[in-house]
Design a protein that fits this description.
Number of domains: 2
Distance between the termini: 34 Å
Radius of gyration: 18 Å
Structural class: mainly alpha
Low-confidence stretches: none
Strand order of the largest sheet: 1-2
Order of helices and strands: HHEEHH
Shape: elongated
Largest sheet: 2 strands, antiparallel
Strand content: 5-15%
Helix content: 55-70%
Number of strands: 2
């Protein structure tokens, strides 16, 4: 699953394991010819929306597959979540 690791999994993995890219992103503010180390950067939520949206989509689709396979009786509830996420995506794209 090299392709998956290099794409979807890579970004949350770097953050979880404090990869150098994640550390730079969280604690370095770059200037023209200098940089500053900051303890906490208060990033706006918009910075994370794409990751959150994709993660929610993946979890919903995986949940649908599991609930379909086991015929859990919760399929309608998860399908509703999928519809809500798709509505949010459509609203964002508009």
């Amino acid at each position: 699953m090299v392709d998956e690791y290099r794409s979807l999994y890579n970004f949350p993995s770097c953050d979880s394991h404090s990869n150098i890219r994640a550390l730079i992103s969280r604690h370095i503010e770059r200037g023209d010819n200098d940089f500053k180390v900051v303890f906490y950067k208060d990033e706006p939520i918009e910075t994370f929306l794409a990751s959150l949206e994709n993660t929610a989509g993946l979890l919903i689709e995986a949940s649908l597959s599991v609930h379909q396979a086991f015929n859990s009786g919760s399929l309608a509830e998860i399908q509703k979540m999928r519809e809500e996420l798709n509505a949010m995506r459509a609203k964002q794209g508009a």
